[in-house]
Amino acid sequence: MISIKEKNRRMCKALCFVLPLFFSHGAFGGQAEEALKETSVAKLKESFEVIKKSVESGFPGLKLIGIEKTSLEGIVQIEMTNNGVPEVAYAAEDGSHIFSGHLIQLSPEGPPLNITEVWKSEKRIGLLTGLKNQDLVVFSPKDEAKAVIYVFTDIDCGYCQLLHKEVPEMNALGIEVRYVAWPRAGVESESGEKLRSVWCAEDQNMAMTQAKNLVSLAKAADGCVTTLAEQFEVGIKAGVRGTPAIFLESGQEVGGYVKASELAQMLRLQ
Q: Can you give the pTM of this predicted structure?
C-alpha cells in the first residue's frame, strides 16, 4: 500500500510537470487568443458569404456590404443597400432567416438600450460632421450655442413651415439650427428649385423665412453653384424618409416637427 506521503509526492511531481504546460503562452497566451480571433473572423466571413448569397438571390434590390456579431447567439447584424439606400437588419448565421426592425437590449439594472439606433447614430455622426456650415443655411443664437440640430427641410412641407416658426425661440434657448436641403421630390423638382433660390439668395436666412411663409422668391441665377445634390444624398444615407427630419450632433434622430420648448427639454437645456 502506498503511503499518503508518497501519494502527495507523486501528485506534486505530476502537477509540476502539467501546470507549466497548462499556463504556458502557447496554451492560454497570445497564440491561443489569436487563434480564437482568427476562428471567429473566419466564421463571420463564412456567414457573410452564405447570407449574401441568400439575401441577394431572394431580393435582387438588396446588396450586402457588411456584417457584425451581436450579443445574441447565432444572430448577426447585417448592413445592406436597398437600391442604393443603406439598411440594417439581422440574420441567422446560417443564412436561413433574416428580419428587420430594432434590436433592443433589456436589463433589470437600467433602461432599455436600442442597439439598432445606437448603430445608426454612430453612422450618422460622420455624415453630419461632413456637412460644412458655409454650405448650409444656419440660424444661430446671439450668444454661444448650447446645442446644435440638423434639420433636413423642404419648402412645400407644411410641418417644415410650422417648425420654422419655432426657430426664433430655439435660438433664444441657445439652439443652433442648421438647415440641410432635402427636396422630397428630388433636386431637379419644383421644390428643389425653391430651395436653390434660398441657397442662392444674398440673404439666405431671410430668403428661408420668406419661402417658409409662402413668399415667392426670384429664380436662382444660372451661374449659382450649390451643394444641394450632395446634401440630398447625405439625407438618403442618414435614413431621411420625409421632412422635417431632425438630428442631434450625436447622430440621434429626433423625428419630425417638435416645439422649441420640447426640444430644449430633450436637450436638457431647461
A: 0.79
